[in-house]
Amino acid sequence: MNNDFHGSGHQPSPQDILNHLSKKWNVSITSEEFARKLDENDSLRNLRDEFYLPKLGSLPKVDKSRTDLQSDCIYLCGHSLGLQPKRVRTFIDTWLKDWADLGVYGHTYGTNPFAYCDYPCIPTLKKLLGAEDNEVGVMNQLTTNIHFMMVSFYRPTSERFKILYEERAFPSDEYAFRSQIRYHGYKTEEAVLTIKSRENEDYIRTEDILELLEQQGQSIALVFLSGVQYFTGQLFDIETITRTAQQYGCVVGWDLAHAVGNIPLKLHDWNVDFATFCSYKYLNSGAGCVGGIFVHSNHFNKEYPKFDGWWGNQDETRFQMNTEIVRGLGANGFRISNPSIHQCATLAASLQVFEEAGIENLRTKSKLLTQYLEYLIEHEMNPSSTHFKIDILTPTDPEQRGAQLSFRIIGVDVRQLFTELERSGVCLDVRGNVIRVAPIPLYNSFMDVYRFVLLLQTIKF
């Protein structure tokens, strides 16, 4: 949609593009016609057909007196659980057929042999993470992987023992950090170091992180932040923070649960030590599905403590039943147990769609969708005479956020508003007094965004 800017020497912002298209089409950005024309000119619009959109009539909270129960809901909750790719059924049926036809031989024969079922996921994950060969492993779930990575990478000493993470980190991450601190014999009140936003601000300034590293970097063993902060939707400057923290001798890991499949990543080039991620949010693999790790190749030839299991063996030695492990190279050497074939099948189905779409293309659309949502909120909701206002916590700079905007609702009870939105067929997420909204470029349309804001304007209590 931004071809008109090619050759101009100017990299247009998402708002530049919206303004340009509004002028070109002679249509107001706030009109329904503008939303429809954006969808008509969206080169990725057919991706929506790759996913199941829940119908209004199937959702438990929708007002069943509605006459449009066979219509698609407005699903803006992919930051919590991605929608099911239609290809999943084919991938699962293939596994079931191999199991039925081959039994135990399915481990090494068939369409997708069970013993190697994670390997088809690796090439696309490498692209999404910006990883090199052997740096990505598919294993376990997110918090489990945090613990396993900290076994190797959190090595506290009497001088360097603190863990730096952000205020309002996802609670499970914080549970892991605190339990690891106690396991190593340190006091959480001494070893926990949280970076906070400034007073009367909602997201954390990069310069404040760098200043804290300068002040306390010599006592920090591990910096472990979220790539995209789950509550505010802030995208941290992974490259700058990693480089600076390592200059002070810190090990740097990232929780990429809300980043992978959301934004392009270059973990190898950014020299990230390690990262963990889940796959059921932006990667659409299904609730509780298999997660993964990234380990930089810088660490391949170093000795680290590890908790071993038989799947950490090299492929050639795994079934020899040796008493000593012959560790696999790179991230695969951190694996513990055999991967779940059905979980890897659902992940592979979704990754196939990513492979065809391209993460850079998805990011371009994502910026436009999110900017469009922000524009409608600021120009339709907040200036109007509605009985509540929306304060956006997420950074306004498109380069400092992913697909998510977090709304603080002012003037009405947020739970009451959330309930009414659910009754109207909008799938969202509420945390405290904040509603988190995520238009996902794979399956959300500009009309989804328009209809959502229209509902916000017209909803009655």
List the helices and strands and how they pair.
Elements: H1 14-25, H2 32-40, E1 74-75, H3 88-102, H4 122-129, E2 136-138, H5 142-153, E3 162-166, H6 171-183, H7 188-191, E4 192-195, H8 206-216, E5 220-226, H9 238-247, E6 251-255, E7 274-277, E8 292-295, H10 341-357, H11 359-381, E9 389-392, E10 405-410, H12 414-423, E11 426-427, E12 429-431, E13 434-437, H13 446-458
Parallel strand pairs: 1-11, 3-4, 3-5, 5-6, 6-7
Antiparallel strand pairs: 2-8, 7-8, 9-10, 10-13, 12-13
Helix pairs in contact: 1-11, 2-13, 3-10, 5-6, 8-9, 11-13
Short description:
The chain has 13 helices and 13 strands.
Characterise this structure.
By secondary structure, this protein is α/β, with parallel strands linked by helices. It has two domains: 3-72 and 367-458, Alpha-Beta Complex (Aspartate Aminotransferase, domain 1); 91-356, Aspartate Aminotransferase, domain 2 (3-Layer(aba) Sandwich). The chain is 34% helix and 11% strand. The strands form three sheets. It has a seven-stranded mixed sheet, sandwiched between helices. Strands 9-10-13-12 form a four-stranded antiparallel sheet, with helices on one face. Pfam families: KYNU_C. It is an enzyme of class 3 (hydrolase). Belongs to the kynureninase family.
